[in-house]
Structure formats: structure tokens, C-alpha cells
Write a structure and sequence with these properties.
Blueprint (H helix, E strand, L loop, with lengths): L1 H19 L4 E6 L5 E6 L12 E6 L8 E3 L4 E3 L2 H41 L5 H17 L4
Antiparallel strand pairs: 1-2, 1-3, 4-5
Helix pairs in contact: 2-3
């Protein structure tokens, strides 16, 4: 019975010491602007991914790259203009990715249409391509197989 109390006491001591420890985070920071680029909790080390314009910063809590930056000695809040610039950059990145995906889909569609025409109605021409493309788009919209 006494061993049980010792085990509970040891567990409680261990959980208390565990909860008081802080997690170290390593982040890459743009030296010129203080922008937090990437990182995470130890043992994640960003040193191998750094460019000459970046430096490694060790912090004890994870910063928010949208609202915080490194000023050379500490993590500080960004200004409203800096947050707006961050949001605009993220929006532009998302829109560029969506546009690239749409353009890839359009290229694949065009290549398939051209290949089908060239295979079954050689030689493929722009007029045949445009007619076939219109038929494919119409079939896609109306779904006559349903």
C-alpha cells in the first residue's frame, strides 16, 4: 500500500516539473525587417535553411508571424500597416496559387483535346480544336450521360 503513495507522489512531482518547463522555439528572422519567417519548437533547427540575409533567433514561446516581429532584442507587435502588408502578401500568394492551378488545368484540357483530335481526326487544326473544345465544354455543362 505504501508503494502506491510513493508512485502517486513521484508522478505529481514529475507533472509539476514538466508543466513549469518552457518549450524553446527556433525561428529564422529577416535581419533587415525583423520578419519571422519559419521555425518551430526544439529540436527543429532552422540553421540549415538560412540565407545570408536571415538569422536564427531562439525564443521561449511561438510568435505569431502575422502580428509580431523581431526588433533585434525581443518580439514586438507589428504596426497596423505591417499587418495589412502581411495580409495582402498572403492573399496575393493564395490568388497566384489558384491562378497557377487554373492555368495548369486549362493547359491539360487543351493538350487532351489536341491529342484526341490529332489521333482521331488527323491532322489537328485550330478550327477542329475550337469545335471540339466547344463540344467538350457543352457536354461538361449539360452532362448528357446522366
Amino acid at each position: 500500500m505504501r508503494k502506491w503513495y510513493v508512485l502517486v507522489a513521484a508522478f505529481l512531482l514529475w507533472s509539476i516539473t514538466l508543466s513549469t518547463q518552457t518549450v524553446e522555439h527556433r525561428w529564422a528572422v529577416t535581419a533587415a525587417t525583423g520578419e519571422l519567417l519559419f521555425g518551430g519548437p526544439a529540436p527543429y533547427d532552422v540553421a540549415g535553411k538560412l540565407s545570408p540575409q536571415e538569422l536564427r533567433v531562439v525564443l521561449f514561446s511561438a510568435p505569431n508571424p502575422r502580428t509580431q516581429k523581431w526588433n533585434g532584442t525581443a518580439v514586438v507587435a507589428k504596426t497596423a500597416a505591417e499587418i495589412m502588408a502581411y495580409d495582402n502578401a498572403k492573399r496575393d500568394e493564395r490568388l497566384n496559387n489558384e491562378l497557377a492551378a487554373r492555368m495548369d488545368a486549362e493547359r491539360i484540357f487543351a493538350a487532351l483535346t489536341w491529342a484526341i483530335l490529332d489521333t482521331y481526326s488527323a491532322p489537328a487544326t485550330i478550327n477542329k480544336y475550337n469545335e471540339a473544345r466547344a463540344k467538350i465544354v457543352n457536354a461538361y455543362k449539360t452532362q448528357p450521360w446522366k
